[in-house]
Structure formats: C-alpha cells, structure tokens
Design brief:
single chain; alpha/beta; Rossmann fold; 6-stranded mixed β-sheet; 5 helices
C-alpha cells in the first residue's frame, strides 16, 4: 500500500500557491524541487547495486506521490539506485533523467545539482540523491541546514520552493512505506 503522509497536505498547499505558475519556469519563474534519497538497495556490499524489492516498491510509490506534480526535469547521480528510483516518474512524464556527477566533494556535487536545478527550463524538478547528499543539496538551494540521513531513512520527500523573488522554503513530507522506528538515530554515513 502506498502511504502518503500528512506532510503531503502541506505539499498540496505549496502546489496551490498562486505564485507558482506552471506556465512559467526556468530562471525567471518559481520552481518546486522534490528531493528524495534513492530507494532501498539490493546489496550493502556492491558499490553500485540495483534496488531491492522494497526499493522497487518505494520507487513506484514515488511515481504515485508525484503523479500530479507536473515534474519537468529529473536529476540523478551516476549510480543505478538513483536512476532506478527516478525511473517511474521519468517514464510517466516522458523525460530523460540528467546525470550530475559527484565532483571533488559532497559540497561540489550539491553545488552542481543546485546549478542544474536553476538552469532547468521547467519549474518542477525531481532530484534523487544519497543519504549524505540530500541535506547538502537542500542547503545549496538556500534551504536550512539539515543532518545527513541515517542508513535506514528512505521515506523522506523534501520539497524546496524556489520563488522568483524572496527566500526559499522547505516542506518535509513522506512517501511509501514508513521508516522503521528510530531510523533517524545514526552515526556519520558514507555514500549510500
């Protein structure tokens, strides 16, 4: 069953903001950036694993959660797990996912993603990252400083509203199966 959490009510409010015009976009208009961590991976030891059965279900839940968001652009990393997580949204919207490489550091990657978001011609962008990049991407877009995600955290959907004028805002929502209890308790992560 696809679980859409109460935070998506806030998402609906953001999507209905009069200042967010789906007809405009690009550098001059408002943008909504939907940021998620890749879904659950099939292997903890493979450096580039595909999604597990649970991950495939979460990727399908993402496509359902974003079906009315009018996603115009999708940004992923070179890893299979990010590409596979975005695949349902990409297919439904008939898009091509754009790969943003890792660069020299996490901050460099986040800056490159933020630049790609701002350069996107559309105004609703999906970004699929990793446990140690999601928070950096949010910050690079002007959002608040958040901690890295813990290894068992997968259900977060972060929506950054980039207005044409004014400060960005962040809405946190959830999609798919809920994270296990205490999932947010962790020590520093490596690229997951």
């Amino acid at each position: 069953m696809t679980a859409l959490k109460p935070g998506l009510l806030a998402l609906a409010a953001v999507l209905c903001l009069p200042s967010v015009s789906r007809a405009q976009g690009g550098a001059s208009g408002d943008k909504l950036v939907f940021i998620v961590r890749h879904a659950e991976k099939a292997s903890a030891t493979d450096p580039d694993p595909s999604l597990s059965t649970e991950g495939q279900a979460r990727a399908a839940a993402l496509a359902v959660a974003l079906r009315d968001a009018a996603i115009t652009d999708a940004l992923v990393t070179p890893r299979k797990r990010t590409i596979e997580t975005a695949a349902g949204v990409v297919a439904a919207r008939q898009l091509t996912a754009h790969v943003v490489g890792f660069g020299a550091s996490g901050e460099a990657h986040a800056a490159a993603v933020a630049d790609a978001v701002r350069a996107a011609k559309g105004n609703a962008v999906l970004v699929v990252g990793h446990s140690n990049t999601v928070h950096r991407i949010i910050a690079a877009l002007g959002g608040p400083q958040l901690p890295e995600l813990c290894d068992p955290q997968y259900d977060g959907l972060y929506i950054v509203h980039l207005p044409a004028r004014g400060a960005p805002s962040l809405v946190r929502a959830h999609f798919g199966a809920s994270d296990p209890p205490n999932a947010a308790t962790c020590v520093a992560n490596s690229m997951r």
